[in-house]
Amino acid sequence: MIARDSPEPDWARGYYRAQNKLKIKSHAMSETELTHSRVIASARENTGGHVSTLALTTHRVLQWLQSPRPYLMFIGFSLFLGFWYLAVEVWKLPRFAEMPGLTAVVSEWLSKNPTYGLSIFMEEYYLHIWVSTRRIAIAFFLATAIGVPLGLFLGWSRRFKQYVFPVFELLRPVPPLAWVPLAIVMFHGSETPVIFLTFLASFYATALNTMLGVESIDVSYIRAASCLGAKRWQVFRHIIVPGALPFIFTGLQISVGVAWFSLVAGEMVSGQYGLGYVINTSYTMVRYPTIIIGMVTLGIVGYVTSAAIRLLGDYMMQWRTRELALGGDR
Amino acid sequence: MQYRQRAESRVKSLTFGALITFSALATGFSTTTAQAAAVKEYGKPGEPIELVIGYQPYYTESWSGVIMRDKKFYEKYLPKGSNVSFQVGLQGAIIVNGMLAGKVDVGYVGDMPGIVSTSHPDVRDIRLVSVLGLGYDQCNVFLVRTDAPKFGSAEEALKWLDGKTVAVPKGSCTDRFAQAVFKAKGLKPSEYLNQSIEVITSGFRAKKLDAAVIWEPTASRLIQEGLARKVATGASVNELDGGFMVMPQALIEQRPDIVKGWLQAELDAELFFADPKNAMEIAKMAVGQTTGFQEKSLWASAFGTTPKAEGGTDVRINLAYGFTPEALDLIKKASTFLVEIKSIPTEIRPEAVQPQFTADILKARGLTAPIGQVKAQPDSAYAGN
Amino acid sequence: MSTQPLYTRAPMPIAGTSTQANREGGVRIIDVVKMYGTQDTGVLAVDHCTFDVPAGEITVVVGPSGCGKTTLLNAIAGFHSLSSGSIYLDNEMLCGPGKLKAEPGPDRIVVFQNGALFPWKTNIENVAFGPIMQGYMTRKEAFEKARGMMADAGLHGIESNFPGEISSGVRRRVEIVRALMTDPKILLLDEPYRALDSLTKSVMHEALLEIFYKNRVTIFFITHDLEEAIFLGHRLVIMTTRPCKPKKILDIDIPHPRDYSVLTTKRFREFMEETAAAVHEEATKAFAAGEKER
Q1: Which H or E run contains C114?
Q2: Is residue C18 predicted with pLDDT exceeding 50?
Q3: B70 Rama class: left (phi>0) / alpha (psi -120 to 50) / beta
Q4: What are the residue ranges spanned by the domains of chain C?
């Protein structure tokens, strides 16, 4: 029974509201856990199964907006930007004085006719964002498509791990920058080397986390499945893969972040479009405000992609989201 | 709802707390920071000085710097006890960024980075004080892949570039040259890539690039290694390139004695460069200060001969030293072009060009600008292996 | 190995001869030894253990933590191998000389200590898992049967929940229903109620007995709680500390069906007296030896 005194998780509050909206004949909170669970289940059945998941998400977003969290975020940013402004333009602190100031960057970024050619009104800006995002998407997709199965096998089969893992671990510390010359020579065209360089770190993060995910699965689950008559491949499909999903999604979030890192190195090779290219070129062209604009844009787009993955993970692992929302009641 | 009330009060207390912290930080900072943006202090005239020289052994037009480092001509003219350290820059832009950050005091750079360096007076006021050299094929070298068709003339070669993949290190003298030529000839490459020298080298090796515009000595090296062919230069389109020495205004104002001293040494270095007998010695110096280059390539970058059809010239470098009308013309044209392509916000400030130091020194020594020329020598003149 | 009779009732007939041993689900553990590691440096977990688990009855094994009773259970289930000895299920050798490790299978299902309901499947998917995996039922059929069995066990209404959303007591009951779906010969319960509070436990006991009365499946139950053992079991096996070996075997003749009123009967108290001393003695030995739960 959910104690009324303990802080209610956001999820639960939103869900109760959803229930009322759907006009379920809800029982008064009775004593046994069983009844409570039945209430949730009947709500779900009445709305036809998984529709409530979307309602859940909507309500969580609304709940977030009504909580103090967005305002705290706002305060955090204001403090940061305020410090930047004061340090560079008002107080002119020793190490900050020569940096591009907040006003310089913002006025360039929002200007209809920017001095150095890049602002939110320029079509080129969105082209750079699009090109980078597309590269990240392809690299990330490849990293996931190759990394997840590889990680699953590394965790599942000891023999496979003995063959493959040493080579894997040997190559892992090599940074993308070191691969640049080989990438140019090995791959056809100029887009493929960039994607390869972006793919590398992403792939390692995904594969490693997946492997750890498999290894972290409680052996009782595997034993229970064997008892129930599952054959080895069935255990793989029904136990290993879903059981490793939380780790896999952690890995994916890391992987997309690392992909953005590597993109800047990778786009040194491409040389024409992309946020990494903007940052690299602005350095040699001595366009300081544009460097900052590139960095900020990269940060924002990277944050959005990371959040998208997190949301996807939450959606795919409903069982975990609900479990955590209920405070991990055991 | 009880939660809402709790939340609101929480936000209030947090905002209050943030404001307190912020004010504390503000007062703290304002008491500790006395000075504003640090303008570098160079000491009083006559005192020994510490100088950081940003130079480019990988840029032949500015090899007076290489000679300077080896021959140490400056020791004669700087106060005793002065300390001079040389930093290699792989690209002019790197040296310019270093100067803007106050970490480099004298820069040997190409025309585009030189002009760009003067365009950020709010960060640091930098001025052009001398012309290292002018040329038609030092920066302005068009290279194509080895399996490109044989061209009858430079004109034909340039036309071929239309719709091809061309790479340059952006922000350099080659960038300006390439874009100027494309505009003048109405050419449009399918891809205009910003790649560093190493990436361009790999690109030629992997046969991914159609063409690149690269400065000497890398151009000669790529040719020597059979990775690319020279097809046109500035001579083919009558477009000059130039190298300049830049210094911060703070140094000029505070220590004119140092500026004069260094420029005296620069004159010695350029005179040394102009003497054809020194060619092998200079090539050896360059080998000592670079890696990955063969002596022959380095020699060829300054003293080698190229067929006229490929854009070869007799005078490889025109050592102007002072601001000749040609140099001033180049600066003006380049500056206008850079404004057009939005590399700099406005035309170069008139005070950014400081000809008086070199003018005075030339007069005192009874010389006129240009003080000499680096002439092309036949291949037989190369005395190495 | 002692030659004294250990049980208060006539010994089981030898394999292959009489009726009682042939009823479904009976397990005979004969002279089982389990050693982890090598002869010199290893740990002896089970030391020449011999006893019977009669078919159709609840046999409870009581012993201090770490004594090796889980090892026995794992050997029956097929997760561990034996060092020597043999185990028979209904006169067929599960493991023994020449085949030291049994195959895990749906005739011997384990209910684990910390619960092993798959958290990423709903309750009904969990319960229907066995028949679907073995392929002798379609998904629809399995779900039908599962729904029926859950309703029988009083678990109606939580089919579409995930295990993380229900309390641990309810989870345990669902797990037992899942185990029963495949008509196992014997149910192996490894301290299933250890992590529950005592209030929930009492409900669980009655629920387990209810299930037993309906299905008459053989149950092999491990616990360290003496009261639970006496309440549930037909037969009680008290183990020594590691290496384990039956110290005392009792038949609990309190009549079935039992409910919690049984706890206060005189007969129950007598059993407690009879066994408490033995259990306590072993527990003290284990404590002194500093046992950690394996």
Answers
A1: none
A2: no
A3: alpha
A4: 21-107+185-289, 113-183
Written as six digits, the tokens of B258 are 């140092």
B188 to chain A: which residues are within 8 Å by CB?
Answer: none
- DSSP 3-state of C273: helix
Cβ proximity of C288 and C235 under 8 Å: no
- Position C3 confidence tier, pLDDT thresholds 50, 70, 90: very low
| Helix runs in B304-371, H state only | 325-340, 356-365
Domains of chain B: 50-135+240-302+313-381 (3.40.190.10), 141-237 (3.40.190.10)
Q: Which long-range contacts (CB under 8 A, 24 or more apart) does A220-226 make?
A: A220/C112, A220/C113, A220/C114, A220/C115, A220/C116, A221/C116, A221/C118, A223/C77, A223/C79, A223/C104, A223/C110, A223/C112, A223/C116, A224/C110, A224/C112, A224/C116, A224/C118, A225/C118, A225/C129, A225/C133, A226/C78, A226/C104
SS (H, E, C) C241-265: CCCECEEEEEECCCCCCCCHHHHHC
Which class does domain C21-107+185-289 fall in? alpha beta
Tens digit of each residue's pLDDT (9 = 90 or more) over A60-108: 677 777 777 888 888 888 898 888 888 888 887 777 777 788 888 888 8
Q: Which two tokens stand for residue B133?
A: 């050299």
Angle between helices A318-325 and A10-21 (to 10 degrees): 100
Our CA-based measurement puts residue A128 at a distance from the nearest CA of chain B, in whole angstroms, of: 14
- Check residue A27 and give its pLDDT: 31
Which pairing describes strands B106-110 and B141-145: parallel, antiparallel, or unpaired?
Answer: unpaired
Residue spans of chain A under pLDDT 70? 1-57, 60, 321-330
| Sheet (strand C235-239) strand order | C108-111, C186-190, C218-223, C58-62, C235-239, C246-251
Angle at A298 between CA A295 and CA A300, to 5 degrees: 110
Q: pLDDT digits over B331-343, tens only? A: 999 999 889 888 8
Q: Answer whether B26 touches A (CB < 8 Å).
A: yes
- Whether residue B116 lies within 8 A of chain A, CB to CB, comes out as yes
As a residue count, chain B comes to 385
Bridge partner list, C30 = C86
Per CATH, is A123-325 categorized as 1.20.81.30? no
Both tokens assigned to C40? 């010199």
Residue written as token pair 């002279």? C31
Question: Which parts of C128-265 fold into alpha helices (H)?
Answer: 129-134, 139-152, 168-180, 198-215, 226-232
Rounded Cα gap, residues C193 and B164, in angstroms: 75
A165 touches chain C (CB under 8 A): no
Q: Which of C215, C254, C259 is nearest to C235 (CA)?
A: C254
Kindly provide the ipTM of the predicted complex, given to two decimals: 0.82
- Helix-then-strand count for chain C, H and E: 8, 10
Quick one: tokens of C126? 């969990």
Domain boundaries, chain A: 10-66, 69-99, 123-325
Whether a cis peptide bond, with omega within 30° of 0, leads into C131 is no
| C-alpha span between B133 and B156 (Å, rounded) | 29
User: Among residues B91, B92, B72, which one has the least CA distance to residue B82?
Assistant: B72
Q: Report the predicted TM-score, pTM, of the whole model to 2 decimal places.
A: 0.75
Q: Which of C108, C161, C163 sits opposite A227 (nearest CB)?
A: C108
C and B touching (3 or more beta-carbon pairs closer than 8 Å)? no
Q: Does C77 touch chain A (CB under 8 A)?
A: yes
Sequence-ordered alpha helix ranges (H) in chain A: 10-21, 33-46, 51-66, 69-85, 102-109, 123-156, 158-171, 176-186, 191-215, 219-227, 232-235, 241-270, 275-284, 288-316, 318-325
> What would the pLDDT profile of B30-59 be if each residue is shown by its tens digit?
444 333 345 678 888 888 999 999 999 999
Q: C133–A234: do the CB atoms touch at under 8 Å?
A: yes
Query: What CA–CA distance (Å, rounded) separates B166 from B195?
Result: 10
Mean pLDDT of all residues in chain C?
81
Is the pLDDT confidence value at C265 over 60? Answer: yes
